[in-house]
Amino acid sequence: MDVPPEADKGIEALRSLTGGFGGMVMTAGLARMLWHHRLVRLGQRRFWSRDLLWEVPTALFSATIGSGVAEILMPHIADAVRDDPARLYTIGNCIVGVCAWLGPRGTEVLLGRVVNKYFPQPKGDHHDRADA
Length: 132
What we know:
Layout: H1 5-18, H2 20-41, H3 50-80, H4 87-118
């Protein structure tokens, strides 16, 4: 089927929107909706409430944080998927989805545990204490 050139430009624009950060925002939005749905099923929220509006900025924030985490992890992941570089985009979206589902506080706790496990502070180094 022949596609007119102006329609082809629209299709390319749609592909570019769903790729990159736009795709990550959609992934984060879906993950936040799953979180909201979970709380509705537990009876902690009503579906149509102000809480639903707060999920929009949370999804945007989570997409930004998740893309940053994915950017940091990509060199390590790229070695593992050297044979199929297209999987990097999928893995990046998965990282964004996990960060969005966890939300800002859950992401902070998870990243704190990872950093403490793989990058422990030397003993006697207490420069982050408030009383020091």
